[in-house]
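so my prof wants the structure for this chain in the tokens format not the other one, which i didnt know existed until like an hour ago. anyway here's the sequence
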Amino acid sequence: MSAIPSRTKGAVRLLANDVTALVPDFPFHYARFLDQAASNGTPLGQVSISALGSKVLIVGAGVAGLVAAYEAMRMGLHPVVVEAGDRIGGRLYSYVKGDPQDSANSVICEMGAMRFPVSGKALMHYFDKVDMSANSADFPNPGSPATPSTVVDYQQRQVYYEGDNLPEEYAEIERKLFDVFLEQDPIKFSEMEAAMSEGSLDQAKIKTLWNAIIDAGWDNLSFFAAMVEQAGWSREDIDLFGQIGFGTGGWNTDYPNCFLEVLRVLYTGLDTNHKLMYDGSSELPCRLWGRSPDAMGDSMAHWSAGTTVESLSTQVIPQIFKQEVRQIMRRSDGQFDVWIFDHNLGSSHQYTFPAVVYTPHKRILDKFRYMDGAERFNLMNGLLSAKQWEAVMYTHYMQSAKIFAQTKKPFWTDVGVDQQYRMSVTLSDRITRGTYLLDYAASHGAYRGSGMFLSYTWNDDSLKFLGDRVAPLPSHVAVCSTLLDSVYAHHQLDLAAEFGMTDPFVEINWEEQPFFLCAFKMNLPGQYEYQRLLFSQFMNGVHSENPDGFILAGDDVSFTGGWAEGAVTTALNAVNKLAVKFGGGTFINNRGPIDDWTALQPKAL
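here's what i got, hopefully its the right format
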């Protein structure tokens, strides 16, 4: 979901070198942890015999919540998932447009995350597990080989190119970034890439390189400041790069953010080599919810064959949707009293759990502290330390908006009189910013129609689509269509004639979604320590006699907000913590994140 788009340079090399997204702050190899457990035929950890069947509340039914619930169940714990919304998936949100009776001509609109980097191997492990990888394709990013053509609309001039054959001025921007700026000391991009490559993987080297950047104070630089003060780019280069990147998407929405946020994504290859999941991204958490581990070839302690996260959750709370967790309080015996407002019944209910894994955006947690009076506010404060609460309060989040239209056919594959495609994936410095074209014809699944994101925007650009409360969707479609018809006037494009016949449009702005209040975390300069505190929270009391059972997870806790890989890996941290909390740990030949914490932990400032 991140605002950082795909690049061209090095994409083939990253695949050839088999780069794995080992986040440099904590370069634990989560995919290897998962693969070793699968090879051993064991869950990820074990709990004491007396703890088998212990209930764990999992707040949020996104991918972090469902991974945590699925793996907790495999260890023999009893996950209870609750969701404040009315669906499973969180920001994996696959919305179907078209006639329900004609699925072959219907199409999936990915309202949230839509492109999944192959370097995120922990996430890919779960896509493989639930049989989604076989029905996928390379995502048609601007300027990628999967995209027939790209048009850059910059300063009211249109530049057309096909595939990844970048025009020279864009290729030069890319060269200045990767071959010059990112190779300087202390960034040393090629060295870090080698250290993250499976054939030459070196976790100690990753830590050494990254800690040198932290020590040099790069956390205090915005992306924009880094380009001015460290790269020494001209204002012309910065403006061009901000609008079109290196032919694959604009970067200026990231300019205010901390440069470390961008650098992590570039190092880990999360910005390139993306997959489109034809079954719809939200199928991943849905399948983890409704399928039994034994049906997917996974071992399971304690529970009988056929047990699912769904069956265990609904034993405790029959209707798991529209259950809004508003208060969580640690009792003197270490258990947690939880107040859940049931929007189906309009009433609040109290439950007690020995452990809670909290996966929604942490700004929601902060908001809930104040909802039920000073007494509960003071009690809830004890969930986290004062510094951790400060990190929750001040972590920065990005807005994001999408406007989608189903089309009658993939008309953009038609060739015009000038031998150019009638329409291309479009990058604009005007209101639409990113326009993506999707054709599901090659899918083996139910939905094989076509559609387009008229606009995909972030930050200030997405806020432009918050207005017009009377009829926002029709007016926003008209705004985008007018611009795109103008850009492609030479092809006499008439988008209105290409849209599906019945209710083809859908729109989302994550800024106004009540249980999200933005799309994803993206730290500002100087916020490294906030992120370290949030990521490290799962280690609270890990070596004490009664380890803390309140555990944060989710991509905003990770060092790579906006990528589902971060949601998965923090969920695995939580699973390891649950094993320790309930009297066990990992297996002797498969070290988990807690086992390797001392050697790999993020550097404190």
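also thought this was worth mentioning. The mean pLDDT is 94.
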